[in-house]
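Input record (one chain):
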Amino acid sequence: MAPCVAISFPAVSPRIDALHPAAANGIACPPGGRAYHPAMLLAVDVGNTNVTIGLLRNGVLVATRRATTPSRATADELEVLLDAMLRLDDVAFADVGSIACASVVPSLTASLERVAERRERPLVIASAGTVPIAIRVERPEQVGADRLVNALAAQRLYGTPAVVVDFGTATTLDCVAADGAYVGGAIAPGLELGLEALAARTAKLPVIELRAPDRAIGRDTVSAMQAGTVLGYQALAAGLLARVRGELADAARIRPDAVRAILTGGLAHAPWVRALDGIDAVDPDITLKGLAILHAEVTGGQPLRMELT
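The corresponding structure, as predicted from the sequence alone:
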């Protein structure tokens, strides 16, 4: 069984972006005065490509589901989608006590706020003002909520300094300094996004399977594209990782291999991704875990025991 870590949550009082700012503790309080229920948390990660949800019972991630992001969904449509995803695991929306969200799609953030208000559920929204870590970049408000949540989870679960490599719509590297502060990172177009653009902007190049070829010199179109995309992306990720690791190590006056590297995102389990050198952990659910940590800290919840993967 994977090791567990007990996380102690210090008292913090960051600003909460919530539905009812007048609430005494800054948390979105439902109109009907429904009691806070920490035992059943719905974590919602709204990305440009997918909406991923996690259901946590007493801090334990018990189910995850993923659907294509309905970027223009109304509150009604989003509520139907979330309820349907929950029911895949025999859970109803009525069973959910609280919601935590990291979103990079503002229209869906607003829709989720309306859903939470109608359902009378407390809602915590991740942002530069709510994630309880120092953010040492020039414009904190422009950093994606998922990147800040990943940094929080990396700090609490894996230690610092650390870098989270997220293979999603974009490939992002998010860096956490030795003192736990988020200090920035790197953003590159995602592999699947690049392939879609390649197929759309050329007349004869097909959509291909994402598989690492045996050779860098392709003998046909498909193997040449696999070499350029998969092997090329391996080199891109490895090169960026080595450089940011080196910079974090220099700042902390430690060896680069002492900087923790965690892989996440939709492609994190691909064999060619796992072949990257120097990876300490593969955690596809780090954003959902980070949302649980965020929720517990800003609401004063009990310490969590979370399983490391």
